[in-house]
Design brief:
- The chain has a domain of about 150 residues: 3-Layer(aba) Sandwich (Rossmann fold), CATH 3.40.50.
- It contains nine helices and ten strands.
- Strand 1 and strand 2 form a beta hairpin.
- Helix 3 packs across helix 4 and helix 4 packs across helix 5.
- Bound molecules: adenosine-5'-triphosphate and magnesium ion.
- The site of magnesium ion has 3 residues, from helix 1.
- Magnesium ion binds next to helix 1.
Length: about 250
């Protein structure tokens, strides 16, 4: 695998209950880029992410994450890989009994031997990155939806993962909060050199953040390439998706 690839998927085929959900899926994500996985509801986007995270056993195909063949890892290697992945789910639920700061510090306290005062400093810095320093001592129930997402993002990046997975991070946000979330993702890429693999339906986000697009239609990759090329694609599903955006622009 070329070193600049953070994810490489080849011939991934997967079934649930004898129904084929992913069909010979191949794509890659490059280091330092934001790769967006697109596709209609049920097209298999989350299932791809779950495979990459090792949450679904690989039955057919080949997956490399950060240069490691995930089907061929010892338990130690698995843990070490897992600790290098930031994960930011759609319902990036924080623990309600802990403060925002404690939530963000949780991965550091669980997986590192960093002394407490230093953890607090790191947490303050991460909360600063998402503009939530003032929420350190607040509880999740006291935060708005957009603030909760930002806090969940701070937690996902607590360990400085070189690779961040996001599954619909912007779902349910108003356009302004969405834009600020996109800017945060761009900052992570530009300032920290993080690579991002993101599932989203928000066309405005795609325009702002995507370097590379992988379009899934009923479990098959029907397009892979730049946003510019995606907008020119003749593939019916890709064309339909971007025509909605063009109509919004008018
Ligand atoms: N654990 C499971 N058991 C059985 N079927 C599943 C399971 N997980 C997903 N599926 C099926 O796989 C297909 C793809 O699901 P997936 O969650 O990957 O879609 P998606 O592209 O993420 O959709 P959405 O945009 O709605 O989140 C769906 O038909 C779904 O019902
Ligand atoms: Mg999904």
């Amino acid at each position: 695998m070329e070193p600049q690839k953070v994810v490489e998927v080849k011939g991934l085929t997967a079934s649930f209950d004898e129904k084929e959900i992913l069909k010979d899926v191949s794509f890659s994500a490059k280091k330092g880029e934001v790769t967006v996985i697109l596709g209609g509801s049920g097209s298999g986007k989350t299932t791809v992410l779950r495979h990459l995270l090792g949450l679904i056993p690989l039955t057919q195909g080949h997956i490399e994450v950060l240069g490691k063949d995930i089907s061929n890892l010892t338990e130690d290697e698995q843990l070490s890989l897992y600790l290098q992945l930031g994960v930011f789910y759609q319902n990036g639920a924080l623990l309600n009994s802990l403060t925002v700061g404690e939530n963000v510090g949780l991965p550091l306290n669980q997986h590192s031997k960093i002394p407490k005062p230093l953890v607090e400093e790191i947490v303050t810095m991460k909360l600063g990155l998402v503009n939530l320093e003032y929420a350190y001592h607040m509880f999740p129930s006291q935060l708005s939806g957009g603030m909760l997402k930002r806090a969940a993002l701070a937690r996902a990046i607590a360990m400085d993962p070189p690779l961040l997975f996001c599954d619909e991070p912007g779902a349910g946000l108003d356009p302004i909060s969405l834009e600020s979330l996109d800017n945060l993702i761009l900052n992570l890429k530009n300032l920290l050199g993080m690579s991002v693999l993101m599932v989203t339906h928000e066309v405005s986000s795609i325009m702002r953040v995507a370097d590379h697009i992988v379009y899934l239609d009923e479990g098959k990759v029907v397009f892979e390439g730049t946003v510019e090329n995606a907008m020119k694609s003749d593939e019916p599903s890709v064309k339909a998706f971007f025509s909605v955006f063009r109509n919004q622009q008018k």
